[in-house]
Amino acid sequence: MMKGGPKEIRMRKSFNSAFMAKVALEAIKGEKTIAELSSEYEVHRTQITNWRKRALEGLVEIFQGKGVKLREEKEKMIDELYRQIGQLKVENEWLKKKSAQFER
User: pLDDT at position 8, please?
Assistant: First the structure.
């Protein structure tokens, strides 16, 4: 027989991103302590602290890199469209020349 009774098997809780964002935002606001939030949402204090940290780090990335990345993507799209326009112009001129040969 085992000492201390049967072992408990704990299932890991899974939280969706909306819930994590809500709890992290409340932790950032600071209107309640981490312990209060932990009790209210039944989430370990360490987990809330981690979500808060990830949210704050994510905010920095939003303001840093997203604008640069969007500009680069926009420039690539514009370059590709200009390339396609140029190719279509060349093909159009070629077709005009070929169709003129058949009209004679």
Answer: 62
Q: What pLDDT was estimated at residue 51?
A: 95
Residue span of the structural domain in which 36 resides: 17-103
Residue 1 lies in a domain: no
Contacts by 25-28, CB closer than 8 A, 24 or more apart: 25/55, 27/51, 27/52, 28/52, 28/55, 28/56
pTM of the predicted model, to two decimals? 0.52
Q: How far apart are CA 35 and CA 20, in angstroms?
A: 16
The answer to whether position 8 is within a domain reads no
Question: Coil, strand, or helix at residue 5?
Answer: coil
How many domains is the chain partitioned into structurally? 1
The CA distance from 23 to 51, in Å, is 8
Residue 3 in domain = no
Q: Mean pLDDT per segment of 10 residues, for the chain of length 104 residues?
A: 56 85 94 95 94 89 71 92 96 92 78
State CA 26 to chain mean position distance. 21
